[in-house]
Amino acid sequence: MIHEGKAEMNDKIRPMPLWLSVTLFGIPCLLEILVMYRIMPWLDGRGLHPMLNYAVFSFPMILLFAAAFIGLRLEGRKISWPEIRERFRLNKMNRGDWVWSLGLTIFFIVSYVSMVPLANLLYEYTPSPDVLDKVLGNEKHFAGFELAGNWWLLGVFFAGYFFNIAGEELWWRGYIFPRQILQHGRWAWIVQGLLWTLFHVFFLYDIALILPGALGLSYVCQRRRSTWPGIIAHGALNALAMIRLVKGVIG
């Protein structure tokens, strides 16, 4: 059972009505669509190097990272670790948190892989933009460079990876989720999980891939009153892409 209510929340946090939740998930989604389907192809057509377009690709996540701290400041908090830790629910994990996080990570990855056949069917009707293949590369290339022997490309990938995980988790689970909990109580994890899934509508096939994991992630984060399980599970799933890069660098 999930038990978390107003008495357990800091009095600086205000409930977030559903319309505002939809807005704060919807605007980043529209920005992602604009970046990937309009801006990146336009820049690529004008000769922008894929490495620079990778920075453009990462830009919406950088904005989410910044938005989380802007939200913190708008609540009258200082940008200090004690304030960040409290507001974004980043307190030290106990053994139970680690057990739940491990279980969530396994569930997230297994559910994601199990949904691949359905996602492949959806991909036939809604393929991702061609420019992403050029920017994200394949087994031998990344961001316009050959992978073989170029270990520094892992650092480039990690920069985007960091803002992807930190941006999404601090914004969705750190800043927004506690406010949703005040508004929706024990059912907030369903609101959070569904909205995070729909945020990925820019890749329709991605909705099938992440829906089970998104709901599981939101449930665990609410039950454990912590953002760490989301960071760990989401980070582990997205880190799988690094395996391809390492193989390519090794050759």
Describe this structure in words.
Mean pLDDT is 94; it is low at 5-9. The protein has a two-stranded antiparallel ribbon. The chain has 251 residues and is an all-alpha fold. Helix 4 crosses helix 10 (228-250), helix 5 packs across helix 9 and helix 7 (152-184) packs antiparallel against helix 10 (228-250). The N and C termini lie far apart (49 Å). The protein has one domain. The protein has helices spanning 18-45, 50-74, 81-87, 95-114, 116-125, 130-136, 152-184, 188-199, 204-224, 228-250, and strands at residues 141-142, 145-146. It is globular. It is built from ten helices and two strands; from the N terminus they run ααααααββαααα.
Q: Notable features of this structure?
A:
mainly alpha, 10 helices, globular
Give, in order, the helices and strands.
Answer: HHHHHHEEHHHH
Number of domains: 1
* Strand order in space, largest sheet: 1-2
Multimeric state = single chain
Strand share of the residues? under 5%
Computed structural class: mainly alpha
The low-confidence runs, each spanning 5 or more residues with pLDDT under 50, are: 5-9
Topology:
Blueprint (H helix, E strand, L loop, with lengths): L17 H28 L4 H25 L6 H7 L7 H20 L1 H10 L4 H7 L4 E2 L2 E2 L5 H33 L3 H12 L4 H21 L3 H23 L1
Antiparallel strand pairs: 1-2
Helix pairs in contact: 1-2, 1-8, 2-7, 4-9, 4-10, 5-9, 7-8, 7-10, 8-9, 9-10
Q: What's the quick description here?
A:
The protein is 74% helix and 2% strand. The chain has 251 residues and is mostly helical.
